[in-house]
Structure formats: C-alpha cells, structure tokens
Amino acid sequence: MGLRSISPSGIAGILLLAASFSTEAEIILQDGFENPLPPVPVIAGCAILPGDNMWNTPIDQAPLHPDSSAYLSYIGVGTPLHADFGTSWAGQDIGIPFNIVPLGQARVPVRFLWWDESDLEQDRCNTGGAEDIGCYPIPDNPAIEGAPLDEGDRHVLVLEQGSCKLYETYATTQSSGQWEAGSGAIWDLTQNQQRPQGWTSADASGLAILPGLIRYDEVMTQGEIRHAIRFTLSSIRSAYIPPASHSDGRGGCSANAPAMGQRFRLRAGFDISGFSAPMQVILRAMKKYGIVVADTGSNMFISGEHHDGWDDGMLAELGQVTAGDFEAVYAGDPVGYGSCN
Asked: Is residue 202 part of a domain?
C-alpha cells in the first residue's frame, strides 16, 4: 500500500510530549451537550485512528516552539482565521464532503497522474495491466469537493464501513466513465501509519484529510471536537514534520516558514466567552488539540465538512481570531525536502 506502520512509542517519540496525556475516555459536559463520548472520534462505526495518533493527541501541555514568534510573523500576526467550510457560496458547496460506503463496495479503476506515490490496490478491480491505475470504492455520484462546479482541489473522501479503510483522492474527475485523479492514498484507520518519506497523499503534507476536518455533528450534536484541525498556509517551508511526509515547499528553505505538519494551538488565555456556544466548541479544540499545517492554500483557512446545516454567519465569528492569538508547539524536527534536504 505504500504505507508503513508506526508504533505507539514511535508516535510518542515524534511528539516528545505524549507521556502526560491520557487516551482514556473522558465524559465532558459543556454548553448543554450531555452525550457521553467514546475515547476517539467515531464515524459510521469506525474509530478514526488510535488514541495516540497525532490527530488525536492533545498539545495543550506541549512545549512552546522556540521559533513560534518567527512563524507567526511570517504568516502575519493580524491574519484572521477563516472557516473554509459551511453551506454554499456563489453556487459552490463550501467545505470538504465525505462519502460512507458499505463493506464490499465495488471498486472502480482510477487513473493517477502521480501513480508512483499513490496507493493502488490493483488486485481489487480490472486495471488492464496499466501501472497507473488503482482500485477505489468510489460510489455512483459521489460527493466531491468543489461540486457542482469544477473548481478547487476536488478531493474525494470515501470511508468503507466494516474494513474501516479510508480512501482519499486529489484533483478527481470523471470523463466518459473513466475516473482520474492526481494522487490517492489508502489509510487503515485501525493503525498509526506514515507514508514513505517524500510521498504525497491526497494532501500536500502526506497526511490523511478526514481526521482533521471539523464535522457538523461533533460541533452541533456532540459538543466536543477531540482531534486536531487541518489548516492551510500560502507559503510553507520545503520540509515536513513526521508523520507528515511531503511538502510542496513554496516558502523555500526559510527557517521562518512553518514546515508541513507543524502544530499550533490557540493560547490558553484567549477569552472565548464572547463567542456563540458552537464556536466555543471549535475554539476549545484549538486550545487542546491545536491546528496542523496540512496543505498549501489561503493563510489561516481551517477545514471542515460541507453541511447544509451550518450557520455561515456564526462561522464568520471565527474571523475575530487572528494568527497572533496562536503559538507554535514543538512536535519534532523538520525533515528537509527537495533542495532543502
């Protein structure tokens, strides 16, 4: 599959901060939400990665990164946070949707541009012997990022129930019945995994996408987000912090530019009392689990699922938060990529 497993001790070693964190289930009652929650996020009966996975590991007690101030100055301390998800705008759905399919969903051939860095599972469908084709359980009429317009990164995320495998593709299109994509990654959500060094995924960081999305149900029903949140920056160092494995490096080798996989947290003293209850759910998660640089895009854009139930006006409250309200934490040393290696 192009993935290698990381032991729990390996994850802890990468973070250098896991010893004080508990992965036991906690029942936290807040803002009137009173549903006991399992120890890790669950979607369609699938636990979304182990409790000690990077996405599920708290960083509220992690050491401050010595270059935190430099990173924030590079981004721009006044840059506002922006919810890059919601309902729709100008005829286009906002956010990244995901598809849930049953165990045994029929696989369809997908031709990949970067097939040599994609997971293929070629024994699951008829590839005709082509080396650039993989087999993915894409359903009929799947939800695609940027639909119905042909815009954006056009990610397709598919979670297969039962196997609890996550299939993600980038730049996904269909023409004359043939699926095509830029790259694809397959994740076994029961394990901690890292892609080979230098490999992309469906994200430029080499990380999975679904585990970092803000989901409607966890904000509006569960009242707690128990994972880190994916976000983008416009200029990222040509380096990555494992378990990230890739960077498109538009920030060159500058030590002032954050690397892919760099984690930030909302400062503990930031006052969230003036925000609506659902937005406080998001802001509390940013204090506890933080945000992760996962792709190149607009500065301080955080990712979530598309859902028609979102209140876009309420999500706009997050624009009151700026990059200067965050701080970078140390989660390991960056690995240079390309000319910065």
From this structure: no
